[in-house]
Amino acid sequence: MTTWREQAACNDSTVDPEWFFPELPGLAGNKAKAICNGCEVRKQCLDAALWQSVCGIWGGTTKSERVAMRRELGMPLVSGWSARTERSRWEQQYYELRELGYSDFDVIRKLGVKPQSLMRQLNRYGIKASQDLIDLVQEQKRSS
Fold first, then answer.
1. Eight-class DSSP state of 129
2. Would you tell me which of 3, 31, 87, 97 could form a disulfide with 19, CB atoms 3.0–4.6 Å apart?
3. Could you tell me the CA-to-CA distances from 46 to 28, 99, 118 in Å, in that order?
4. Each residue's pLDDT tens digit, 58-106
């Protein structure tokens, strides 16, 4: 199975990687953006770049354009510890909601997941679930 990176138009041997990391804005960046515009995996590339701290042209955008997009979308700016650990999208969403004061029950509604699914994900990432969520999952297991 090939990954989106392997399918990317910029992965072609005729494409100069320097175009995607221009030191100064201009022609090189424009060439990269033109390649991105015709790429079948542009959306996946842009999504990855929005959730990670990367330099250069990704998904047809510059780093400064992605920072502006993050602000417009209400996403946290990716830097420091979170960028180095490259959290998964799910984990990032969970932390964002919790930081906004949402309870585990609110997170269940917002993410549209079942309590058991949230519990599995929390366990997967080593995140301690609230006692209310633990009780709810245990209660649902007993009743089923």
1. P
2. 31
3. 19, 25, 26
4. 999 988 888 888 888 877 766 544 443 444 666 777 777 877 888 888 8
Find the helix packing angle between 131-143 and 115-124, rounded to 10°.
Answer: 130
pLDDT score recorded for residue 26? 60
Cβ-based neighbours of 134, under 8 Å, separated by 6 or more: 119
Query: How far, in Å, CA of 48 to CA of 15, rounded?
Result: 21
Contact of 78 with 51, CB cutoff 8 Å:
yes
41 with 4: CB under 8 angstroms? yes
Q: Is 104 exposed, middle or buried (0-12, 13-18, 19+ CB in 10 A)?
A: buried
C-alpha 84/C-alpha 86 separation (Å) is 5
Domain ranges across the chain: 4-79, 87-143
Backbone phi, then psi, for 58, in 5-degree steps?
-135, 130
> What letter would DSSP give residue 119?
H
Which token pair is 18? Answer: 């320097």
